[in-house]
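Try this one yourself first.
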């Protein structure tokens, strides 16, 4: 019974991508901790992953394949063998294919284990060869990604380790204390060395409380603030004409659009004092190195794409590149330029935007979606317009496979359930999107029950569906080797030697020194024509607040420290509450911990209220990633989130719901076992 400590890495959907030291005994997990192999991990990890064993061996864990034995949604299943499950799936997929055409099949996947082996390998081979509908994978980072691609060709970003070199840090719509905890010490170190910190967030996040300036805008108004900064830079002669001439295109057109945005107007739209925006613009113009971290909180609304554009344009207009600690930091997920040669050409089949899954399942289309294969995702918990998604998943004529680690809200609606391994039980590659790390994830414990990895399952499916040519890879080990070989430069060799790799430009590239825009001419495109055509009211424009008298409050649903998206949401979670400003509570006669209903025309959520001045007036907040059981009426924030799309990239508008909140009468009969407590996420 000897304990052994083994190295691996965390591939969950978080920027930090920690190096892990896992203690095991006789094939069983004893404990998980951070190691120091990946410098930013620094030997510690978040509390969630530390408790990952509660998922691995927990009650909700799926241990064998099963088929539905009750009505959809009731999670009643009977155990079958893998062979029986495969036969049923292949039979039904072939039937759908013959009767309705292959586009009647929709594969649905997203963040799962966010690694290179568990996604876009044999899974993609299966669905491409079938000619299935394609999924528009837009639930996250679609607006910011579209902006960064068009402007900079997704140039690698400033990494965590270079934050201490900055003299000014602006954290814009990002909350690292929850969503990427390893950034926090670098920000604090920069502050100790004299850097100023500005946080732009409708909530007083932990770092906002320690900032020199906290700007709390109305959700969805960041584009106004950023455009007023551009106007200030241009009008005050503080824009860097030399840099713009040498390295950008479209600066004059941006200047033209920004001209309408006085600080006064931005202040009125955003609900931020004029003096604060003035201070922000002045600090940014006068300080170098200045670093802007553009987060994801600001992209999830009607103006999210233009907000990201205007923010990412700031370092180019103000000339902040070319020094360590200067420039911008967002997602580094594309920094490695990884190709997937095994995929071959992509068939031009229909694309279903995942943010409109409910509509895709409910509205008549040609062909209708008759089969859905869900893996690496929990759409019932994570997509907009939850009630419509539930309606769609409840369709009796829809054949649904859910391949997951635990009995999720989505799995409850499956016809066939397949048990998946966790990242402690299978190989993968973890790619950080904050720090520039690429690490090997190893199976370090025995698989639980009969669970299998993604490449094992999709390899077997590919064989049984007859979509492989002779000699093509159909198993996990060969797929793993193919990924190794496809890694850029000598990354594969490095990982083979040490379990981790460093990109050719190093772990701490300086923008415009070590890395340049990956656009066709190496310049920053400040006014991409294709995007001007895509945005409903054009680039660098603002669409009005959708609030109404009936639904005056803006609901946001940021990341919480209890889950990664909805992963780990199966664990007990007492005290889920909507956070509300004291003034909004007073005008509704609400007291601390009161039971409330929060509603709009899409539905209603019943839970407790937490009254707290950490959130600006007019905005309320309920955590992202809740499971249905976490509230009193089986509905989460996504029940209230419309399936409208962002201005660029077809993204989700999670932070653009408008709602009303009222006391929940007769609450005790509705609460069942859940009791309101004074704590929130
Ligand atoms: N613990 C934990 N970590 C995570 C995740 C998780 O669920 N839990 N999720 C991971 C994933 S998938 C992602 S994409 C990242 C997301 O990481 P973040 O970018 O930090 O995203 P959020 O938590 O959604 O939002 C960040 C902040 O934006 C604020 N915000 C909301 N609307 C607006 C707005 O209109 N303007 C501005 N300026 N701010 C706004 C919110 O109050 C919140 O504090 O985190 C990753 N890390
Ligand atoms: N209200 C609101 N909703 C949001 C957001 C928000 O800000 N507000 N943010 C959105 C964001 S940023 C994101 S990224 C999405 C994420 O949405 P999802 O991609 O649905 O993320 P998860 O909820 O983590 O679900 C991942 C599932 O994959 C499973 N899984 C993990 N590893 C494997 C594997 O190896 N194989 C298989 N077969 N399954 C595996 C996990 O058990 C889990 O159930 O959520 C979005 N939803
Ligand atoms: Mo995300």
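Now uncover the answer:
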């Amino acid at each position: 019974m000897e304990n052994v400590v083994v190295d691996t890495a965390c591939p969950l959907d978080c920027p930090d991508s920690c190096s892990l030291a896992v203690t095991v005994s006789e094939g069983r997990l004893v404990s998980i901790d951070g190691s120091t192999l990946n410098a930013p991990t620094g030997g510690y990890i978040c509390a969630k992953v530390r408790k990952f064993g509660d998922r691995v061996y927990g009650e909700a864990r799926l241990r064998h394949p099963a088929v539905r034995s009750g009505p959809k949604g009731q999670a009643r299943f009977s155990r079958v063998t893998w062979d029986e499950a495969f036969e049923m799936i292949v039979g039904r997929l072939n039937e759908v294919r013959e009767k309705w055409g292959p586009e009647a099949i929709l594969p649905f996947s997203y963040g799962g284990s966010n690694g290179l082996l568990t996604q876009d390998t044999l899974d993609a081979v299966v669905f491409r060869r079938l000619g299935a509908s394609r999924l528009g994978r837009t639930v996250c980072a679609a607006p910011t990604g579209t902006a960064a691609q068009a402007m900079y060709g997704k140039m690698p970003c400033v990494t965590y380790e270079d934050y201490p070199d900055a003299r000014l840090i602006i954290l814009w719509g990002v909350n690292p204390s929850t969503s990427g905890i390893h950034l926090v010490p670098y920000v604090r170190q920069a502050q100790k060395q004299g850097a100023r910190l500005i946080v732009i967030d409708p909530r007083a996040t932990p770092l906002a409380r320690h900032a020199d300036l906290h700007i709390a805008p109305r959700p969805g108004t960041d584009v106004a603030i950023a455009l007023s900064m551009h106007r200030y830079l241009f009008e005050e002669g503080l824009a860097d004409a030399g840099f713009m001439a040498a390295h950008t295109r479209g600066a004059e057109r941006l200047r033209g659009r920004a001209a309408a945005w006085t600080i006064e107007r931005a202040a009125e739209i955003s609900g931020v004092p004029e003096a604060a925006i003035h201070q922000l613009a002045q600090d940014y113009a006068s300080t170098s190195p200045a670093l802007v971290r553009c987060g994801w909180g600001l992209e999830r609304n009607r103006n999210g794409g233009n907000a990201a554009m205007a923010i990412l344009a700031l370092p180019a207009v103000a000339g902040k590149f070319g020094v360590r600690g200067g420039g911008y930091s967002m997602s580094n997920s594309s920094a490695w330029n990884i190709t997937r040669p095994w995929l071959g050409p992509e068939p031009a089949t229909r694309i279903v935007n995942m943010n409109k899954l409910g509509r895709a399942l409910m509205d008549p289309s040609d062909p209708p979606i008759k089969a859905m294969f869900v893996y690496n995702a929990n759409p019932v918990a994570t997509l907009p317009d939850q009630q419509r998604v539930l309606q769609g998943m409840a369709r009796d004529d829809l054949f649904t496979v859910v391949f997951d680690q635990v009995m999720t809200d989505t799995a409850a609606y499956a016809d066939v359930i397949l048990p998946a391994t966790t990242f402690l039980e299978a190989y993968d590659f973890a790619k950080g999107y904050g720090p520039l790390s690429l690490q090997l994830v190893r199976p370090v414990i025995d698989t639980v029950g009969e669970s299998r990895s993604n490449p094992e399952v999709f390899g077997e499916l590919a064989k049984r569906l007859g979509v492989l040519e002779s000699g093509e890879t159909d198993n996990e080990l060969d797929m793993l080797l193919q990924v190794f070989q496809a890694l850029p430069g000598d990354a594969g060799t490095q990982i083979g030697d040490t379990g981790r790799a460093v990109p050719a430009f190093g772990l701490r590239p300086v923008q415009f020194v070590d890395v340049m825009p990956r656009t066709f001419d190496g310049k920053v495109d400040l006014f991409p024509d294709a995007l001007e055509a895509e945005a409903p009211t054009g680039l660098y424009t603002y669409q009005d607040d959708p609030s109404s008298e009936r639904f005056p409050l803006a609901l946001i649903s940021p990341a919480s420290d209890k889950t990664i998206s909805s992963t780990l949401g199966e664990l007990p979670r007492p005290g889920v509450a909507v956070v509300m400003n004291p003034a909004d509570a007073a005008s509704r006669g609400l007291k601390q911990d009161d039971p409330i209903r929060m509603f709009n025309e899409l539905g209603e959520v019943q839970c407790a209220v937490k009254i707290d001045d950490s959130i600006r007036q007019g905005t309320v907040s309920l955590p992202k990633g809740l499971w249905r059981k976490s509230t009193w009426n089986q509905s989460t924030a996504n029940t209230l989130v419309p399936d409208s799309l962002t201005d660029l990239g077809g993204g989700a508008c999670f932070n653009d719901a408008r709602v009303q909140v009222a006391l929940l009468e007769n609450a005790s009969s509705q609460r069942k076992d859940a009791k309101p407590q004074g704590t929130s996420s």
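Discussion: Confidence is low (pLDDT under 50) at residues 672-681. Residues 13, 140 surround molybdenum atom (ligand 3) (CB under 6 Å).
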